[in-house]
């Protein structure tokens, strides 16, 4: 595979015919593939092939194999299924389900890049599905019935795929951790795995993590979909981690007045600093969003179909926050405020608007944007301005000014120094955070899953595949 098979596709790889290169990450390449059987049997799948130069690295091989073994234990409609783990002439691979659709990151890019909003129902269905898939992973037990304590550790819009039926699936357990009975810690002392903007506060502080940490990451995804920005922003990794640990998120309705109250309540609960104050399982999140799922056929599927017909924003559906200089912006370029499309959510939305007094300048701008964008999902889209296609999901968006902070944050201003209890993993993480100050931002883009060592060295670990699985490169 080192000779670049994508330049001479299709090519036979074991029993799989690789037909199209879907993308590459720091640990593997992904290919659309076909496997043939008797009597004309054919099945499409995705084959994830480990990069040749990592084949001799025991740690990466173990991580790659663990992803397959763990995901293979999960048979759930909201988790991408694993078919086979193997190797061809020493090249390790995983064969998995092909999700014909878009990653949530690509879905938002296409919508906002074409001047359309993402209906609130679409976001709610996606979050509910992901929560159900995570609940299954978190509840996974071994053959003896002992809880494995699975934590995904990399939940973000890149790792959530929506298929043509409007069903969202969780993928990529490459950096997952087992915290249960026989789980072996896969993270060395002082390492952080995952994308920093999505890391839960307890993980940054080295206090350990469980399934509720994944729910926090899901909350960051939820927040971004309805507001166009992440709940915490800063000019670098260290201040960003400090903000995640110390600051209170701005209520989503301050950024988008059309966010229904019950949705805002769920988002803020997911973003609680204390895991005990968050929903305790994905089932709880799913149950709260259950009434919205009736809109899947009415709103979600037609919206996805419309997005699939659009050309990818910027010419390609590259992973959100593709590596490059970190730019400061108030929100994702091209963002159009999410709005409810069904009566159940609209009634709550109207109640919110009726109760609103003295709207902020930002709120007025959002309302104007909403008015401009309201109408059919297939309404002609305005030509996006130059640069609107760039998705800055993982880029810094500056520091919120005191005048726009929530009452909670104004009453409890963030401290200027990040306090981490000394001793054990927490001390190592603290050392890593301090050492990370000297690391150039250009060397480690915020969108890259990174391993931050206590000595200050930062190494990429299986960053998101450049193209979402199931999507051809533009």
What report would you give on this structure?
The protein has about 475 residues and is an alpha+beta fold. It has 2 domains: about 5-95, Phosphorylase Kinase, domain 1 (2-Layer Sandwich), CATH 3.30.200; about 100-410, Transferase(Phosphotransferase) domain 1 (Transferase(Phosphotransferase), domain 1), CATH 1.10.510.10. About 35% of the residues lie in helices and about 15% in strands. It has helices spanning about 60-70, 105-115, 120-140, 200-205, 210-225, 235-245, 250-255, 260-270, 280-290, 295-310, 345-355, 360-375, 405-410, 425-435; strands at about 10-15, 15-25, 30-35, 40-50, 80-90, 90-95, 100-105, 150, 160-165, 170, 175-180, 450, 460. α3 (about 120-140) packs antiparallel against α9. Residues about 180-190, about 315-330, about 370-425 and about 435-474 have low confidence and may be disordered.
Annotate the secondary structure layout.
Elements: E1 11-13, E2 16-24, E3 28-36, E4 42-50, H1 58-72, E5 82-88, E6 91-96, E7 101-103, H2 104-113, H3 120-138, E8 150-151, E9 160-163, E10 168-170, E11 177-178, H4 201-204, H5 211-227, H6 237-246, H7 252-255, H8 261-270, H9 282-289, H10 296-309, H11 343-355, H12 361-373, H13 407-411, H14 424-436, E12 450-452, E13 458-460
Antiparallel strand pairs: 1-2, 2-3, 3-4, 4-6, 5-6, 7-9, 8-11, 9-10, 12-13
Helix pairs in contact: 3-5, 3-9, 5-8
Overall pLDDT: 74
Order of helices and strands: EEEEHEEEHHEEEEHHHHHHHHHHHEE
What is the C-alpha radius of gyration, as a whole number of Å?
Answer: 22 Å
**Amount of helix:** 25-40%
Helix-strand category: alpha+beta
Given as residue ranges, the uncertain stretches (5+ residues, pLDDT < 50) are 181-190, 314-330, 369-427, 433-474
Number of helices, where a helix is a run of at least 4 consecutive DSSP H or I residues:
14
The side-by-side strand order for the widest beta sheet comes to 1-2-3-4-6-5
Strand content: 5-15%
User: What is the CATH architecture assignment of the largest domain?
Assistant: Orthogonal Bundle
**Main sheet attributes: strand count, strand direction, barrel closure:** 6 strands, antiparallel
> What is the CA-CA span between the terminal residues?
22 Å
Instruction: Write down the CATH class of the largest domain.
Output: Mainly Alpha
- Output the CATH homologous superfamily of the largest domain: Transferase(Phosphotransferase) domain 1
Number of strands: 13
CATH fold group of the largest domain = Transferase(Phosphotransferase), domain 1
Tell me, briefly, the overall form. globular
Please give the domain count.
2
């Amino acid at each position: 595979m080192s000779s670049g098979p994508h330049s001479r596709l299709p090519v036979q790889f074991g029993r799989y015919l690789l037909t199209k290169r879907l993308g590459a990450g720091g640990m593997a390449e992904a290919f659309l593939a076909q496997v043939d059987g008797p009597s004309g049997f054919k099945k499409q799948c995705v084959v994830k092939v480990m990069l040749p130069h990592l084949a001799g690295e025991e740690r990466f091989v173990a991580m790659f194999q663990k992803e397959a073994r763990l995901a293979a234990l999960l048979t759930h409609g909201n988790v991408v299924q694993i078919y086979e783990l193997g190797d061809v002439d020493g090249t390790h691979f995983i064969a998995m389900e092909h999700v014909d659709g878009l990653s949530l990151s690509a879905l938002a890019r296409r919508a906002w890049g074409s001047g359309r909003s993402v209906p609130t129902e679409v976001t709610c269905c996606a979050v509910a599905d992901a929560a159900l898939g995570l609940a299954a992973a978190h509840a996974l037990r071994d053959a003896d019935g002992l809880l494995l304590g699975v934590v995904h550790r990399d939940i973000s819009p890149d790792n959530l795929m929506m298929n043509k039926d409007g069903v969202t699936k969780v993928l990529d357990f490459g950096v997952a951790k087992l915290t249960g009975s026989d789980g072996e810690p896969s993270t060395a002392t002082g390492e952080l795995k995952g994308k920093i903007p999505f890391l839960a506060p307890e993980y940054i502080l080295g206090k350990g993590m469980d399934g509720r940490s994944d729910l926090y990451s899901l909350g960051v995804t939820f927040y971004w979909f309805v507001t166009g920005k992440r709940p915490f922003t800063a000019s670098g990794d260290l201040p960003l981690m400090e903000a995640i640990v110390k600051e209170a998120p701005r209520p989503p309705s301050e950024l988008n007045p059309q966010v229904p109250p019950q949705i805002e309540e769920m988002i803020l609960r997911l973003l609680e600093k204390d895991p005990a104050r968050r929903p305790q399982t994905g089932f709880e999140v799913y149950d709260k969003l259950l009434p919205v799922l009736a809109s899947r056929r009415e709103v979600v599927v037609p919206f996805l179909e419309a997005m699939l017909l659009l050309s990818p924003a910027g010419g390609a559906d590259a992973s959100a926050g593709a590596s490059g200089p970190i730019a400061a912006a108030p929100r994702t370029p091209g963002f159009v405020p999410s709005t409810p499309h069904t009566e159940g959510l609209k009634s709550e939305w109207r109640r919110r608007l009726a109760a609103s007094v003295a709207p902020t300048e930002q709120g007025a701008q959002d309302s104007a944007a909403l008015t401009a964008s309201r109408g059919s999902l297939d309404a002609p889209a305005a030509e996006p301005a130059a640069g609107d296609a760039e998705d800055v999901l993982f880029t810094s968006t500056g520091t919120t000014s005191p005048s726009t902070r929530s009452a909670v944050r104004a009453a409890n201003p963030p401290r200027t120094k990040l306090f981490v209890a000394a001793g054990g993993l927490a001390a190592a993480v603290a050392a890593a955070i301090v050492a990370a100050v000297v690391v150039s931002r250009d060397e480690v883009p915020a969108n890259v899953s990174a391993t931050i060592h206590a000595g200050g060295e930062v190494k990429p670990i299986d960053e998101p595949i450049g193209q979402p699985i199931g999507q051809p490169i533009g």
